[in-house]
């Protein structure tokens, strides 16, 4: 009970603003990395299926590299490694916009794109040949066919997996604290080291993470039910 | 790049051992093996609790799984980091902190895999065992779990890969594993971060890709065995 009251007092005092600022950064990072993950993931899945053997091999290599290296290592690699290679003008441009945030978002987004593309690829396999043939016989161009006929069905099949990846992506943004992005976990550590109210601070952060996670899981369950309904 | 590897391969492999604590890839693998072994036992218990049909076991186990699934692994590490010393009453080394967090995290994921395996088992198996007069203990240990473990083997290998990747969180609480070692090298050299972290990524890739490929091989084999025609029982 004491911890609970302590938690409430942290949210209502100055720490509260920090918690919300942290959550805002966490959500911004989720959206930034999510846009990269879903955009690039879709592109990778489509060119892997459409491209020749060379393209397919290159995409497969990219996916395997991203999936078999820890996300934290990707983040460190971008923040310390790639950043050192950039020409000064580019580095300055990124620094002005907060290099920690940009590199963490890039690393997380590029890594999750590999997972998203795998989910979409199995969705692509589920679309029957007749769908392509019918679209082609109607004289649709390839991009038109993909956009109007194939991908809507793919997203429907892959939806449960994609929601799972969204949850994973949201949780993984916490790794950005390792390079000093002031997201929720980082802010919590700051509050903790200033107030020494360890359990209250981490209690609040845990509750906030769980609340967002449960919203994503709930949305996933709802989408799942709706898709079951549509299939009937 | 090769000169970095030549000068530091021992640090990357075993840390400062024998002149200091064990670290590097050896520590990463020790952590992962210990974590997956303990998580395997704990995950089985959670899965059994969730399939037991006993409300008093079902609800706590289900709540645990959902809470841990909703939290970032980093939070699990920090909870272990702050709560364990309070619970035990004395400071504990980072190794045990990280191991506890990994066991907690991985056991819930493994329990979901095992639970799926238990539920996908044909009902006839348990019914036949009951008809033969087997008790719950024998049905679970002799009939259900061996089949579940066999079909779930590929997923368990992939979960082992996840565990190896998650040991990199040791970097955040200064556990001397592979990522920590690479960071040490980076701070010594200062000017060559790209090469150092590329080497780090490649080491993880080689270890994890080998295991992922093994998981795929196992998956094909298990699928073949499942689809194989059932053995004909020879008349006595």
UniProtKB/TrEMBL annotation, chain A:
Q: What protein does this entry describe? A: Amino acid ABC transporter permease
Q: Which GO molecular function entries does the Swiss-Prot or TrEMBL record give?
A: transmembrane transporter activity
GO cellular component assignments: ATP-binding cassette (ABC) transporter complex
List residues traversing the bilayer.
20-47, 68-86, 98-116, 199-223
Q: Which UniProt keywords apply?
A: Cell membrane, Membrane, Transmembrane, Transmembrane helix, Transport
Q: Where is the ABC transmembrane type-1 domain?
A: 23-217
Q: Where in the cell is it found?
A: Cell inner membrane; Cell membrane
* Coiled-coil region: none
Entry-linked InterPro entries: AA_ABC_transptr_permease_3TM, ArtM/GltK/GlnP/TcyL/YhdX-like, MetI-like, MetI-like_sf
One of the GO BP terms on file: amino acid transport
The record's comment on protein family reads: Belongs to the binding-protein-dependent transport system permease family. HisMQ subfamily.
Automatic annotation (TrEMBL), chain B:
Q: Please provide, in alphabetical order, the Gene Ontology terms of the cellular component aspect for this entry.
A: ATP-binding cassette (ABC) transporter complex
Name the keywords, alphabetized.
Cell membrane, Membrane, Transmembrane, Transmembrane helix, Transport
- Its domain of life reads Bacteria
Q: Molecular function terms in GO for this entry?
A: transmembrane transporter activity
Q: Where is the ABC transmembrane type-1 domain?
A: 25-215
Keyword match Transmembrane = yes
Instruction: From the record, give the transmembrane residue ranges.
Output: 20-49, 56-82, 196-218
Q: What are the subcellular locations of this protein?
A: Cell inner membrane; Cell membrane
Could you tell me the membrane topology recorded for this protein? Answer: Multi-pass membrane protein
Major site of localization recorded for this protein: membrane
Gene Ontology terms: biological process: amino acid transport
- A Pfam family that this protein carries is BPD_transp_1
Family, similarity comment? Belongs to the binding-protein-dependent transport system permease family. HisMQ subfamily.
Its name, as the record gives it, is: Amino acid ABC transporter permease
